[in-house]
Design a protein that fits this description.
two-stranded parallel sheet; globular; single chain; 2 domains; 6 helices; 4-stranded mixed beta sheet; Rossmann fold; alpha/beta
Length: 141
């Protein structure tokens, strides 16, 4: 399921990459707001560059909606910057300053763990990638 705002789903339904490669036949496109709910019964809820847009309260709401919707063995996968502790320069720290302007922020592993815990999830691991992003994995607590 590709789940996003109505305007994004409307564009995706007409997108040549979605239609030409047969993706539309293999997945369902749904519109809505993750602040209200997300599609039920998923094995994995993947969010890339979503949580960094929002303050902690909003993030907990999004994560709670994922927890409520996912199946018993479901996972939440957050693809985002994970700021390393200390004061070494990093792309994530620079982006954190930019996100401050719009009310979002980049987070450390411990900060992600706290968000997950407040939403009834448990952070199981952080998987680094070859790029600046990591995959933060959580399951039901």
């Amino acid at each position: 399921i590709l789940y996003d705002q109505p305007s994004v789903i409307a564009r995706a339904e007409k997108d040549q990459h979605v239609t030409a490669k047969g993706i539309k036949e293999r997945c369902r496109l749904e519109s809505g707001s993750f602040f209200e709910s997300v599609p039920k019964g998923g094995d994995a809820y993947i969010m890339k560059y979503i949580l960094h847009d929002w303050n902690d309260e909003a993030c907990v709401g999004i994560l709670r909606n994922c927890r409520a919707a996912m199946n018993e063995k479901g996972k939440v996968l957050v693809v985002d910057n994970v700021i390393a502790p200390g004061n070494d320069p990093s792309w994530g720290k620079l982006l954190d300053i930019q996100m401050l302007i719009i009310g979002g922020r980049e987070r450390t592993k411990n900060e992600f763990a706290a968000l997950f815990a407040e939403a009834g999830l448990r952070l199981t691991r952080v998987v680094p990638t070859k790029g600046p992003l990591s995959i933060v994995e959580g399951v039901r607590a």
